[in-house]
Specification:
By secondary structure, the protein is α/β, with parallel strands linked by helices. It is about 40% helix and about 20% strand. The protein has helices spanning about 15-20, 45-55, 70-75, 80-95, 130-135, 140-150, 160-165, 165-175, 180-200, 225-235, 245-250, 255-265, 300-305, 335-355, and strands at about 1-5, 25-30, 60-65, 100-105, 115-120, 125-130, 205, 240-245, 270-275, 275-280, 285, 315. The strands form 2 sheets. Strands 1-2-3-4-7-8-9-12 form an 8-stranded parallel barrel, surrounded by 4 helices. Strands 5-6-11-10 form a 4-stranded antiparallel β-sheet. α13 crosses α14. It is globular. The structure holds D-mannonic acid (CS2) and manganese (II) ion (MN). D-mannonic acid (CS2) binds near residues 103, 105, 207 and 330.
């Protein structure tokens, strides 16, 4: 495996490439052109400039998170082919720059959903949290204002204000879309992009929905072993793969994370590893990566990845806000660096234990 960190680009991230380079064992970044809109073609010059900037800092671009999917594609609107053509052009441009991993999601309207961005934990750190009763009590149009006050001035991925301004329109687009229609639209999209992925050896890695159940009545499909296997089989191509995200699949305790990893052997192109703590089945908060701080067995997760022969990139996912850092919620330097060091430690121990 290769340890990486997510980096949003110098205009948006409080964390610098120099800082990332100094985290032991981190050799690359997972990045994006954060100011491109879904559906827009990524221009070669901008991809090249990003690559040069990362390489000048002694790192490399290991993958893109995310090239977002336009809602016309997700809803199967009459103009979807135009947006798929643009997506294909973006993939070509990435492939020509030797970038071979793209993380994306197929979630309607919102990317991840949380009800708090700065819940205070017993150690005084602040973390993202989810409470079902809070979701049930709020109108979807108000959730953005509920959480944006704690965003520390950053633009939250998937929650861009321009997008939230159109939220009524977005909900209307999905009115007729159920899980089956969403699966069908995903299949159509994947079938169209697989040839270009084959040509440039680009691994597509779908991120699970977060949380893995329907919020605000919207359809949700990338939620369980059964559904993700269906998704793999419906377009059975090695480039049609997954981002295994422990924190997202793990929002449902019924998802056995090591078992899921084993079931996806060969198709996990990217892994997000983080821990959650359940206070009740309907309330969870993000914790330090350490197993004992949350509800997951991080050793078992890393061991399953090791055992399936995982060679792709891993990144710590959300971190807590600690040591008075001000950054994008979930994406500060300190706790993610601790997470990377811890995950590297687990991996080394598993690897050396295996030699005996
Ligand atoms: C990420 C997702 O911050 C996160 O929870 O793991 O937002 C992820 O980047 C997207 O869903 C992938 O498109
Ligand atoms: Mn994730």
């Amino acid at each position: 495996m290769e340890m990486t960190l997510r980096w949003y680009g110098h205009d948006f991230d409080t964390v610098t490439l120099k800082q990332i380079r100094q985290i032991p064992g981190v050799t690359g970044v997972i990045t994006t052109l954060y100011d491109t809109a879904p559906g827009e073609v990524w221009q070669p010059a901008r991809i090249r400039a990003l690559k040069e900037e990362v390489e000048a800092a002694g790192l490399r671009i290991v993958g893109i998170e995310s090239v977002n999917i336009h809602d016309a594609i997700k809803t199967g609107a009459s103009d979807r082919d135009r947006y798929i053509d643009n997506y294909i052009e973006t993939l070509e441009n990435l492939g020509k720059e030797d970038i071979h991993l793209v993380c994306y999601n197929f979630m309607p309207v919102f990317d991840w959903t949380r009800t708090e961005l700065a819940r205070i934990r017993p150690d005084g750190s602040t973390v993202l949290a989810y409470n079902q009763a809070a979701v049930d009590a709020i109108d979807p149009e108000d959730i953005f204002s509920l959480i944006s006050k704690d965003s520390n001035g950053s633009v939250l991925p998937g929650w861009e204000p321009s997008r939230m301004a159109k939220i009524k329109e977005l909900f209307a687009m999905y009115r007729e879309i159920d899980d089956e229609a969403l699966f069908e639209n995903l299949r159509y999209f994947l079938e169209r992009i697989m040839p270009v992925c084959g040509r440039y050896d680009i691994n597509m890695a779908i991120h699970p929905d977060d949380p893995v159940w329907s919020v605000f009545g919207l359809p949700r499909i990338i939620i369980s072993k059964k559904n993700i296997l269906r998704m793999m089989q419906m377009v059975d191509d090695p480039h049609n793969g997954v981002t295994f995200c422990s924190g997202s699949y793990g929002t449902n305790p019924q998802n056995d994370l090591p078992d899921l990893i084993r079931a996806l052997k060969g198709r996990i192109h990217f892994a997000h590893v983080r821990n959650l703590k359940f206070n009740t089945p309907a309330d969870f908060e993000e914790t330090a990566h350490l197993s004992s701080d949350g509800s997951f067995d991080m050793y078992a997760i890393m061991k399953a990845l090791y055992e399936i022969g995982f060679t792709g990139p891993i990144r710590p996912d959300h971190g807590r806000m600690i040591w008075d850092e001000t950054a994008m919620p979930g994406y500060g330097l300190y706790d993610r660096a601790l997470g990377a060091a811890y995950l590297n430690g687990l991996w080394e121990a598993i690897e050396k234990g295996d030699d005996k």
